[in-house]
Specification:
The chain is α/β, with parallel strands linked by helices. It has 10 helices and 15 strands. It folds into 2 domains: 168 residues, Rossmann fold, CATH 3.40.50.720; 168 residues, Dihydrodipicolinate Reductase, domain 2.
Length: 379
């Protein structure tokens, strides 16, 4: 791999257990777009891994990906479909780096073949797809990890520690989300914005991260009802999209919001934007009966608002350091360790299905113009 690529990832990665360098896991890559680069770099730090196959629908794209990144491809087999690759290779695991609409099909096929799966976020597009993935995972007994690497960031971990400490008391209200003043991802072609490839827009691209951060902190309570809204005012207007010619192809949400009732008496106020006439949609707030936590949208120190000896005080939570460890690389390492040690997924789909249910609920509610109930079948 090119030094220019590896130089971005020089930090030594945390490993949960000693690695048996004599047992190389055989890995395949499905989809060789830009996110596949991060997967390849992460695998390059793992002495117990060998990338032996890659698949992409576009002829020559997978081969070009390896060549462009100076990756030795002499022992790599290339395919034009995930099915051909999985049918012809003896793989331990795959990284699924395709566009959203292909996530479910590729994950289910790999699991049914008895292959462990690292599935990029969002989990998929609809709740029905998420249920199908979960069923395939349960039937296969294989490891399925969804790509929420922020969970391994120490600041994200601190949010969960504060909630679990009981310092905030009973949680009753959460406000979260995020936004970009201009940030529709068209530099990567139309796969993020076309209905047939993306399915969902800002909701799935960055909204799933915001949801996971707070839902994980409060124990991933089951969503019950959703009132949702979505719009596409910016993506369909050539004035606001980096490549104006892509406006005609834009067919997803560039803004979405939802009011979600969660099990346990918690309400979630959520909003997300790829583009807007504003610098921020506000800080993330977690309100409890004994205290409140503010997580600044600008990434500054968090604060706990509470009472001490009858006085209203603010406690600043110092920013946490990752000590040079990259959360993305850690995600890949923990995925591999779960495979080798037979341990549970570090990011279980039993939780992320609730994340997907909320995204699906916002979408359905926005289409119907009314509140919808969330019903997740038994799996």
């Amino acid at each position: 791999m090119a030094d220019s690529i590896l130089d971005k990832y020089k930090e030594k990665q945390d490993e949960k257990v000693a690695v048996d360098a004599n047992r190389k896991l055989k890995v395949g890559i499905i989809g060789t777009g830009w996110i596949a680069e991060a997967h390849m770099v992460a695998y390059s730090y793992c002495p117990d891994v060998e990338v032996v196959a890659a698949a992409d629908l576009i002829p020559g794209k997978a081969e070009a990906f390896f060549e462009d990144h100076c990756i030795d491809s002499d022992n790599v087999n290339f395919y034009l479909s995930h099915k051909d690759m999985l049918d012809n290779e003896e793989l331990d695991a795959v990284s699924i780096c395709t566009y959203n609409m292909a996530h479910a099909e590729c994950a289910i096929y790999a699991l049914n073949k008895g292959v462990n799966v690292m599935l990029e976020k969002p989990m998929c597009v609809t709740l029905d797809e998420a249920v199908a993935i979960r069923r395939a995972e349960k039937k296969s007994g294989k490891v399925l990890v969804i790509g929420f690497q922020p969970r391994f960031d120490e600041n994200t971990k601190m949010i969960k520690k504060i909630v679990e400490s009981g310092e905030l008391g009973k949680i009753y209200y959460i406000a979260t989300g995020g936004g970009r003043r201009r940030g529709i991802p068209t530099p990567f072609g139309t796969s993020f914005i076309a209905k047939e490839t993306a399915g969902i827009g800002a909701l799935g691209d960055i909204g799933c991260y915001s949801l996971d951060m707070v839902l994980d902190a409060v124990g991933y309570p089951k969503p019950l009802t959703v009132t949702g809204y979505k719009s596409d005012f910016f993506g369909t207007n050539p004035l606001y999209i980096e490549k104006p010619e892509y406006a005609a192809a834009f067919a997803v949400d560039d803004f979405a919001a939802g009011f979600v009732r969660l099990d346990g008496g918690i309400v979630l106020d959520f909003k997300i934007a790829w583009a807007m006439h504003m610098d921020t949609l506000g800080d993330t707030l977690i309100l409890g009966t004994n205290g409140g936590l503010k997580i600044p949208s600008n990434g500054g120190p968090m604060k706990v608002y509470h009472d001490v000896a009858g006085e209203q005080v603010e406690t600043v939570i110092p920013s946490q350091s990752n000590d040079g460890k990259d959360p993305f690389n850690m995600k890949i390492r923990y995925f591999l360790d779960a495979i080798k040690n037979g341990t549970p997924s570090p990011i279980p789909s039993s939780e992320i299905i609730y994340n997907q249910a909320i995204i699906d609920g916002i979408f359905r509610s926005a289409e119907l113009g009314e509140e919808v109930k969330i019903v997740i079948p038994e799996i």
